[in-house]
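Retro notes (design track)

What went well: tokenization of the new backbones is finally stable.
What didn't: we kept losing track of which sequence belonged to which structure.
Fix going forward: every design gets posted as structure first, then sequence, in one message. First example under the new rule, 384 residues:
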């Protein structure tokens, strides 16, 4: 799974961080960096600055200049910073980080913003989402389901603001699913919905009926059959062989707990979720294993974290890795395309190998080719 991908543009293969390249002109590549440098998330902004500086050192050219500016996750401050940088000749930006900072950026013409958000709906035309979006994750899940020849997959999605992103990803990916359920995150309502989805009451009644039948029978092995029945919780099958839970953290665990309560186990059904960023708490939850999910390249993430820690004596986060790769992506594209034509640079089909994995660029969209992992017996194991 951790083999390096070959990046092909026409007939050329480029490994950006391995082979040295000379920028074809003396013109500087000016990159704006829109990050929170004040307020609640200022430490995050500093991590992103550090990661782009590290990427600049690794690329080792003299043609790139980075200009950080504050957003304070405030749309008005973000707009002001973007205008100031554009007036300095900046045409391409890394950032902003948060979706709420994007709303006024369509006022800044003839520039491109590579936002770190993973949301893809309702973006200004000059903003490209670069985060690990729903479509990238659903594409990886689709590949896993096809490899395992599943027949009936259900999606469970919380009734939250990103549910439309999930619906869009299901449609665009053309993943074959049996049903898509949107559930209430309130625990009591959630449990009731899971009971309905799994036909729990019917299966529970099936068990009670069978116990009654055996108790009132003249079967020679009646006691033995009753002993077996008393160890069961239900009788009957559910109408799916795999379940995708597009949820995270404690809410994800609540859904899985409800499934376990209704006698649906990951031991006989595929339990799949979305990118968990290698959440260690899932490793400690033996009852929910095995559990599967798409994510970025784990080995590359670990190597990046070690390098970043050694370089700055502080730990990075996943947005640090993403911003590191985005600087590399911009440089890679600059080798192929005139950056002055900024409105076309992300329309042409390209692929780029970064530390996160492979970026696929086309029609002003960026998707990721994700790896796939399984947590089983307290360990994270690679699938592809």
């Amino acid at each position: 799974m951790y083999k390096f991908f070959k990046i092909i543009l026409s007939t050329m293969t480029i490994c950006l961080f391995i082979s040295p390249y000379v920028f074809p002109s003396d013109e500087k590549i000016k990159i704006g960096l829109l990050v929170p440098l004040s307020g609640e998330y200022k430490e995050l902004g500093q991590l992103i600055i550090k990661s782009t500086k590290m990427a600049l050192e690794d690329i080792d050219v003299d043609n790139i200049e980075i200009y950080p500016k504050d957003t304070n996750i405030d749309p008005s401050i973000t707009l002001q910073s973007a205008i100031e940088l554009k007036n300095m000749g900046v045409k391409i930006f890394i950032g902003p980080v948060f979706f709420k900072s994007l709303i006024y950026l369509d006022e800044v013409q003839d520039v491109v913003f590579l936002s770190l958000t993973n949301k893809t709906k309702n973006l200004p035309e000059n903003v490209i989402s670069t985060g690990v979006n729903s479509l990238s994750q659903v594409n990886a899940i689709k590949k896993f389901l096809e490899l395992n020849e599943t027949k009936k997959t259900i999606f469970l999605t919380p009734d939250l603001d990103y549910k439309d992103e999930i619906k869009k990803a299901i449609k665009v990916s053309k993943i074959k699913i049996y049903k898509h359920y949107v559930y209430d995150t309130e625990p009591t309502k959630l449990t009731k919905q899971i009971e309905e989805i799994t036909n729990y009451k019917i299966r529970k009644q099936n068990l009670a009926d069978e116990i009654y039948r055996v108790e009132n029978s003249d079967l020679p092995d009646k006691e033995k059959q009753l002993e077996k029945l008393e160890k069961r919780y239900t009788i009957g099958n559910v109408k799916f062989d795999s379940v995708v839970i597009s949820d995270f953290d404690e809410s994800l665990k609540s859904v899985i707990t409800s499934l376990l309560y209704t006698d649906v186990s990951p031991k006989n059904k595929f339990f799949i979720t979305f990118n968990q960023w290698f959440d260690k708490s899932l490793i400690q939850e033996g009852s929910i294993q095995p559990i599967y999910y798409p994510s970025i390249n784990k080995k590359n993430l670990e190597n990046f974290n070690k390098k970043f820690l050694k370089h700055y004596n502080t730990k990075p986060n996943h947005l640090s890795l993403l911003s590191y790769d985005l600087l590399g992506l911009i440089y890679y594209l600059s080798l192929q395309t005139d950056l002055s034509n900024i409105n076309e640079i992300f329309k042409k089909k390209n692929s780029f190998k970064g530390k996160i994995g492979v970026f696929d660029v086309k029609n002003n969209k960026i998707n990721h080719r994700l790896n796939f992992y399984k947590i089983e017996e307290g360990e994270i194991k690679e699938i592809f």
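Added context from the reviewer: The radius of gyration is 25 Å.
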